[in-house]
Write a structure and sequence with these properties.
Pfam families: NIPSNAP (PF07978). This protein is of the alpha+beta class. The chain contains 3 helices and 4 strands. A hairpin with a 6-residue loop joins strand 2 and strand 3. The radius of gyration is 14 Å and the shape is globular.
Length: about 110
C-alpha cells in the first residue's frame, strides 16, 4: 500500500472557493469512481497552499483508478477545466509515500 500526497498552489485569493469545490465536487466524484481519499488540508503557513492525500493498494490499482477518473467524460469536459482555473498547475507536487511499520496509516 502507498499514499499519494498532493500539494497544490491555488491562485491567490481563491483557496476558500477551491476547498468548497474540492469537498463538494472533486472529492465526491473521485470517491464515486473508486478513489480512497484519506485527507484534505489547508496550509497554515501559506494562504494559497492546499494538500490532500489518496491511498492505493498497489500500482495496478492506482493506474486503474487514474484511468477511471481522468479519462472519464465528466472529468475531461467539466471538472478538469474548472480545476485548472483554480490552480497554478505548473506548481503541483506529488509525493508517493509508504507508511512505516508502526504508522497509524498502515
Amino acid at each position: 500500500m502507498f499514499y499519494e500526497i498532493r500539494r497544490y498552489q491555488v491562485r491567490p485569493g481563491l483557496r476558500d472557493e477551491w476547498v468548497r469545490y474540492m469537498e463538494d465536487t472533486v472529492i465526491p466524484f473521485q470517491v464515486e469512481r473508486g478513489m480512497s481519499v484519506t485527507a484534505s488540508f489547508v496550509d497554515e503557513e501559506d494562504p494559497d497552499g492546499y494538500v490532500w492525500i489518496r491511498r492505493f493498494e498497489d500500482e495496478q490499482e492506482r493506474a486503474a483508478l487514474y484511468a477511471n477518473v481522468y479519462q472519464s467524460d465528466r472529468w475531461r469536459d467539466e471538472l478538469d477545466p474548472k480545476v485548472k482555473s483554480f490552480l497554478l498547475v505548473d506548481r503541483i507536487e506529488v509525493t508517493r509515500v509508504v507508511p512505516t511499520p508502526n504508522s497509524g496509516l498502515r
